Amino acid sequence: MKLAIFGPPGSGKGTQAKKIAGRFSLRHISTGDIIRENIASNTKLGKKFKEYNDKGLLVPDEWVFEALRPTLPKEKFILDGFPRTIGQARMLDTLATLDMAIMLKVSDEEVLERISGRRVCSSCGKIFHIKFRPPEKQGFCDACGSSLVQRKDDTEEIVKSRLSEYHSQTKPILEFYEDKKILYYVDGEKSIEEVFSAVCFFIENSISK
Ligand code: AMP
Questions:
Q1: Residue of the nearest CA to atom 19 in ligand 1?
Q2: Model pTM?
Q3: Is the CB of 11 inside a 6 Å radius of any atom of ligand 1?
Q4: What is the C-alpha separation between 41 and 7, in angstroms, rounded?
């Protein structure tokens, strides 16, 4: 089974991808993780990735593909964060035929609320949310007591620009998979477990066909 999961920033696709990988014994492949590993190990590709990653920009298609290609197994995987452009979708198509593309639908308003309310501990990195997971003492970390900060790319203005880029890049990808009749939409605004059961339902149905 070869799957890909899509969704706007903050849609919880990483969380779902891990759960799906566990349930169906798939390899979870996150291009974000591959890119960060290359940067951390200072590989030749990592040096190229760094300047894009630091600015929150998409890495050019050919380079992401070069990093992804050796890790793509012949069977059984779930892609998380790839393809992110129509060019990448076409490149992937030359290597593997996806069985399902799962799209987590989350409105822009919900994304804005989820991301702009996120706060991170300046010391230990623990993540809070002013509405959904508030700390016991406002502005301070429950775990270590240090002050909470907002990441630069979590501010409303930047989230809005990330969202507009996301929509323009994702639309043609969705059309591509819609044409292949393998695109499934799931309401991503429900709880983690509800989203997971909806996704499992689609996958199990597709297996039993
Ligand atoms: P993520 O962890 O998926 O949010 O990815 C983090 C960063 O890695 C992104 O902001 C991009 O700079 C880069 N990245 C991850 N996946 C891709 C991709 N498929 N194409 C281009 N850049 C990517």
A1: 82
A2: 0.89
A3: no
A4: 28
Tens digit of pLDDT at every position of the chain (209 positions): 999 999 998 899 999 999 999 999 999 999 989 998 999 999 999 999 988 887 778 899 999 999 999 888 778 999 999 999 999 999 999 999 999 999 999 999 999 999 999 999 999 989 999 999 999 999 999 999 999 999 877 888 888 988 998 999 999 999 999 999 999 999 999 999 999 999 999 999 887 76
Per DSSP, the three-state class of 28 is strand
d(CA 173, CA 101) in angstroms, rounded, equals: 10
128 CA to centre of ligand 1 in angstroms? 23
Q: What angle do CA 9, 55, 105 make, to 5 degrees?
A: 10
Give the residue numbers marked as catalytic. 13, 84, 118, 151, 162
Angle, CA of 176, 57 and 5, to the nearest 5°: 40
* CB of 13 closer than 8 Å to CB of 7: yes
Q: Count other Cβ atoms within 10 Å, centred on residue 200.
A: 15
For ligand 1, whether the C-beta of 162 sits within 6 Å is no
Q: What is the atom index within ligand 1 of the atom nearest the CA of 56?
A: 10
Tokens of 3: 């799957």
| Beta pairing class for 100-105 and 183-187 | parallel
Q: Which class in CATH covers the domain with range 2-208?
A: alpha beta
Tokens 């300046």 locate to: 122
CA distance 103 to 170: 10
